[in-house]
Amino acid sequence: MRDVLGRHYDVTMTSICLLGKDCRGLGVDGASNMLGHMRGCAAIVKRDFPRAKEVHCFNHRLNLALSKSCDLAGIKLAMAVISETYTFIYKSTNRRLRFTKIVDHACAEGQHRRKLVQLCPTRWVERHDAVIVFVEFLPLIALFLEEEVKYDSKASMLLGNLQEPRVIVGLVVAESVLAHSVTVSKKLQAEDGNLILGYELVKDVEVAIAKMRESEIHFSNLFEKAEGLLRTIGSTHDRIFVPRLCGRQTQRINVPHTSPEEFFRRSVYIPFLDHVLSELRHRFSDNTMPKLLHLRELLKGSHATKALILLAADDEDVQATLLGAEIDRWILTAPLFTSVEEALIFSNTKLFPEVGRLLEVLLTLPVTNAEAERSFSVLRRVKTYLRSTMVEQRLNSLALLAVHRELDIPVDEVIECFARKKRRLLLC
Q1: Are residues 277 and 299 in the same domain?
Q2: Residues 177, 264: one domain?
Q3: pTM, whole model, 2 decimals?
């Protein structure tokens, strides 16, 4: 395929996601076996393109790390309450209208967010936003459920679950972590990302969560916030208490503690942060990254490590002797760069052809396949059962219009295009 710079380059692994969620036409056992070394898409593509790179979508990795961590007992209970409450409110039109009326009355003029977000397991940004928005609207949700008891008995059960201290602590802890990852998840789905930027963004999240783990004050502030929310939603408990324990640790968490704050710190906060850190370090370790990521040494200018750059260039079509000489000159003359684009411009203007070729490859490797996967959602909306006889040209045109909604369509040119066509029907 041709990269964004117009130069020919081998097809990459993540571009195979254009095949969709079903890869049976290639003999692949679905999208779960994309990187299989025997019968996966990686092996199939490498038969024809030996130099193709295996790049697992960064956003998939981040979503998997957070999804696995949210399966812990304290956080999983909070996620279940979010899902059940959203379904209860928006499943009925009358309940949705009553909840919207409460939100419109309480929200300030000009506030953008006016409804809850569904806890979707596949749409990553919505998953993050679902927790953050739910905590923001928690007092209004409690008020709605109190008034809804006279219409539906299930509202009483949901209100009781919402006023449970374990749920409140789980919500606050999950919100504190997902607040760091939501902006990163949005950035990883952008079109202008590259491997170095994605790697640095995830590492920044890892460092931030590690500081939260080491801080003694951070959870104390979260615990105070949880107690404030508990009083705001009208719970019968003024303070968070330790749930009933049992003699042996079979299904319940029995950790040694001297106070409720210490109990939830050891049973919810620390295990959740440790699990998130472990997943991030496992899924974004240097062993799981392509060797081309070592080219970030070129951004360091005079502090670059020549051995790592040569290691990244082993599988590329560059001349080793010329590359070694260019790296020596690069270390002597190149300044510090803030992006790959700046380094590429410097290599073109200062005559570093081999280094520039490596930077082009690094810049054109896709970091995420989120944009490709969005095309399947667009296709489902565009090609409905009412358009079953649509031909390929019209389908492609409608899909482009749906994907690039930000572009302005010149209406006069469209009318002129239709007017030039010969029609048997006369339009008066």
Answers
A1: no
A2: yes
A3: 0.75
Flag whether 422 is in a domain: no
Of the candidate ranges 78-92, 209-223, 355-369, the one whose mean pLDDT is the lowest:
355-369
Nearest to 372 by CA among 4, 7, 15, 2: 15
Q: What is the mean pLDDT of residues 395-417?
A: 84
Written as six digits, the tokens of 179 are 């607040």
My answer on whether 236 and 330 are in the same domain is no
- Please count the residues of the chain: 428
Cα 330 to the center of its chain, rounded Å: 36
| Residues forming beta bridges with residue 8, ordered by sequence position | 2
Is residue 382 assigned to a domain? no
**Using CA of residue 132, residue 133, residue 138, residue 139, what is the dihedral sign?**
positive
Going by the DSSP 8-state scheme, the letter that residue 286 receives in this structure is T
DSSP letter for each residue of 94-140: HHHHHHHHHHHHHSPTT-S--S-----SS-HHHHHHHHHHHHHTHHH
- Give the contacts of 5 (CB within 8 A, at least 6 positions apart): 360, 363, 364
Residues near 365 by beta carbon (within 8 Å), at least 6 away in sequence: 12, 53, 55, 194, 195, 290, 292
- 48 with 80, same domain: the answer is no
Q: Kindly state whether residues 1 and 121 are assigned to the same domain.
A: no
Tokens (6 digits) for 261: 């704050």
Q: Domain residues for 90?
A: 62-243+253-283
C-beta neighbour count of 375 within 10 angstroms: 16
Whether residue 186 lies inside any domain: the answer is yes
- Cα torsion through 325, 329, 332, 335, rounded to 10: -130
Same domain (yes/no): 69, 184? yes
Average pLDDT value for the chain: 79
Same domain, 296 and 207: no
Give how many domains the chain has, as a whole number.
3
Q: How far apart (Å, rounded) are the C-alpha atoms in residues 192 and 188?
A: 9
Question: What pLDDT band is residue 1 in, cutting at 50, 70 and 90?
Answer: very low
Which pLDDT value is given to residue 130?
Answer: 87
pLDDT tens sequence across 264-302:
888 889 999 999 999 998 888 877 777 788 888 888 888
Angle value at C-alpha 407, between 401 and 410, nearest 5 degrees: 90
Q: What are the tens digits of pLDDT across the range 201-253? A: 899 999 999 999 998 899 999 989 988 888 888 766 667 877 776 666 666 67
